[in-house]
Amino acid sequence: MPSLKDLRNRIASVKATQKITKAMQMVAAAKLRRAQSAAEAARPYAERMETVLASLAAGVAGDGAPRLIAGTGSDKVHLLVVCTAERGLCGAFNSSIARLARDKALALKAEGKTVKIICVGKKGYDILRRQFERDIIELIDLRSFKQVGYVNAETIAQNVLARFDAGEFDVATLFFSKFRSVISQIPTAQRIIPAEIPAGTQTSDSVYEYEPDEGEILDVLLPRNLTVQVLRALLENAASEQGARMSAMDSATRNAGEMIKKQTQLYNRSRQAMITKELIEIISGAEAL
Amino acid sequence: MATFKFELVSPENILFSGEVVSVIVPSVEGEMTILAGHVPIVAALKPGIVLAQTGPGNGKEFFVGGGIVEVNQTALTILAEQARFIEDVDNDVLDAEILTAETRLAAAPNEDEQRRLQELLIQLQEFKGVFQQRKAA
For A30, A72, A112, A213, which has the most beta carbons within 10 A of its beta carbon? Predict the structure, then answer.
């Protein structure tokens, strides 16, 4: 049976924790709003890019297609770009992305393929490091950036492209968490090299003229498309992270509240029991006289 | 006057979306004015000023740092990786652009990339000159 003092201390500490989780929830809510609007603002660009690219790619299919669309012709070496958060305390956000990446890596290894991993964000690295220490080729740290932007995406995309040009891998897949709502974030794997081009958007009336020619525009557009895909992943991730943190902290606050209620009840009960006991002692003492 | 839909989209936001009479874009092969009913075209852009005419004597100017313009039957879309309202552009912004291009040129991995960045750098410097003249005028 804990003493009254113990109980008081325990209640005080849970209350302090509750205050912290409550504050974190509110901060996450504010950040979520910003991250969400950033993610939404980036969507039109990505969509338009996709349509332009689709109509362009339809024209150059075949042998002459650039390597970013056609691939290298083999799929021996896979590059996994795993985007996670830099910080924890956001529910299952980091671990669900890492789990998806791990399953994919294990499946590829079982097929006898080589796997290389680039981690964007420290948390994913911490999780994957235990199992794939030797496969992780780089950790990209975004902690110093308050808000991820086009520049960050560009650096990552350049990095991936440089490795592709150097022939370090054949297929690249991007892992991130799609933001559905505050309570639902979907870990997603997306193939970025060779690019997944949605087919069938070519309509009869959109026969474009090109200036300069198709090939040259495509050469410029494909790397940029990669950047846009990475940017989208980063922005979706940022929104997902805040959403996950918000709901995690919300339930933490609620749990703390419940705990306080129980402990307070226990405290009151044992205090009353003590008083009753003392009263009985006094009365029976008086009666004995 | 015949109008058509014009959208200026950057990765971070949509700068302009609405009906316009004409749009002047800085394509890599020279400036190009696009009116309603223009033939479908996809063109690469160089750093420069986009002028959208919303009505007679009513225009809006934007700075784009390169990108791509797509014209189809009904709409014109500019995808620019860098876009600002012209009022938000000054020498500092351009200098910063030039500096990033220079640092990237120094770190360029292959010749193709080098050539492309070199071109970009020249275009940017050219534009800076034009911009200063404009300001003086």
Answer: A72
Strand partners, B34: B23
Measured distance CA(A119)–CA(A256) in Å, rounded: 34
Cα dihedral sign, A212-A213-A216-A218: positive
Distance CA A219, CA A67 (A): 10
3-state secondary structure of B60: strand
Element (H, E) at A260: helix A214-288
- Whether B70 sits inside 8 A of A48 (CB atoms) is yes
Instruction: Establish if B74 touches chain A: CB-CB under 8 angstroms.
Output: no
Residues in chain A with pLDDT values less than 70: 59-64, 197-206
Q: Which residues of B touch A49 (CB under 8 A)?
A: 79
Q: Is B108 on the interface with A (CB under 8 A)?
A: no
The answer to whether residues A92 and A181 touch, using CB atoms and an 8 Å cutoff, is no
Q: How far apart are CA A138 and CA A285, in angstroms?
A: 78
This model's pTM is above 0.90: no
Mean pLDDT, each 10-residue run in order, chain B (137 residues)? 87 86 90 89 88 85 87 87 82 80 75 77 82 78
Residues of chain A with Cβ-Cβ distance to B77 below 8 Å are: 48, 52
Phi-psi region of A247 (alpha: psi -120 to 50; beta: other; left: phi over 0): alpha
Question: In angstroms, how far is CA A126 from the centroid of its own chain?
Answer: 14
SS3 category, B83: strand
SS3 A152: helix
Res A141: pLDDT = 87
ipTM of the complex: 0.74
- Gap between the Cα atoms of B72 and B83, Å rounded: 21
Q: So which residues of A are the catalytic ones?
A: 90
Note whether A97 and A176 are within 8 A (CB): yes
Output the pLDDT for position A204. 43
CB proximity list for A132: less than 8 A, separation 6 or greater: A102, A105, A115, A117
Helix H or strand E encompassing A150: helix A150-165
Q: What is the pLDDT of residue B2?
A: 84
